[in-house]
Design brief:
By secondary structure, the protein is an alpha/beta fold. Helix content is 56%, strand content 11%. The chain contains ten helices and five strands; from the N terminus they run βαβααααβαβαααβα. The protein is globular and about 50 Å long. Bound molecules: adenosine-5'-diphosphate and magnesium ion (MG). Adenosine-5'-diphosphate (ADP) binds next to helix 1, helix 7 and helix 10. Magnesium ion (MG) binds next to helix 1.
Length: 202
């Protein structure tokens, strides 16, 4: 079995960017966001269950999850959010296991889990937690640049996520991403050396 690092961080903190940099170094990467998208695209494995739980109104004409409608629904409705997670999380975990088997030859595997702080099932599966962290102003500026959202929209999402303090409390390792990409790559490189040399025999 591979040595597994759980990578998490708030929206826009740089999880995907950090994962790309680890991939360049030779790490195995599993991105649960990518898996969630595949499960909910047209013909995805979660569509039937979502349709029967939430009705056809949240499915687009071509059979994909309508993300805008679902986002609105779960934003103010905790029960709906839980329901969606109950559908998605087991399917995501299943796919993670499949990909872990495919990545057995890698020196170690980084699993990107935005909801690591909220998911004990995932925390139990990782040997180490890596948090990519930055100040809120950096988060907001980067998400506005990436998604054309407003300052208020990004702040509302941040307010719903686990707080920065609580996330950092889970961390075995922290990458700070307030600086430029060169600095980020240097931090990844140091951690890559460390993770490559961890002897893991569970
Ligand atoms: N150090 C950095 N300098 C400049 N832009 C960055 C840096 N880190 C990330 N970005 C950019 O900020 C945005 C958010 O990063 P991303 O990795 O997508 O965050 P996350 O996956 O955590 O939501 C992306 O457009 C990304 O290219
Ligand atoms: Mg991302």
């Amino acid at each position: 079995m591979s040595f597994i690092v759980g990578l998490t961080g708030g929206i826009g903190c740089g999880k995907s960017k950090v994962a790309d940099l680890f991939a360049e170094q030779g790490a195995g990467i599993i991105d649960t966001d990518v898996i969630a998208h595949q499960l909910t695209k047209s013909g995805g494995d979660a569509i039937a269950a979502i349709r029967s739980a939430f009705g056809g109104a949240c499915i687009t004409d071509d059979g994909a999850l309508d993300r805008a409608i679902m986002r609105k629904l779960i934003f103010s409705n905790t029960a709906a959010k839980l329901r969606l997670e109950q559908i998605l999380h087991p399917l995501i975990l299943e796919q993670v296991k499949v990909q872990l088997r495919q990545l057995q030859a890698k020196p170690y595997v980084i699993i990107v889990v935005p909801l690591l702080a909220e998911s004990s099932a995932f925390r139990q599966r990782v040997q180490r937690v890596l948090v990519v962290d930055c100040i809120e102003d950096t988060q907001i500026a980067r998400v506005i640049g990436r998604n054309r959202m407003t300052d208020a929209e990004v702040r509302a999402i941040i307010a719903q996520q686990t707080s920065r303090t609580d996330r950092l409390r889970l961390a075995d390792d922290v990458i700070n991403n307030d600086d430029g990409l060169e600095n980020l790559a240097a931090q990844v490189s140091v951690l890559h050396q460390r993770y490559s040399n961890i002897l893991f025999d569970h």
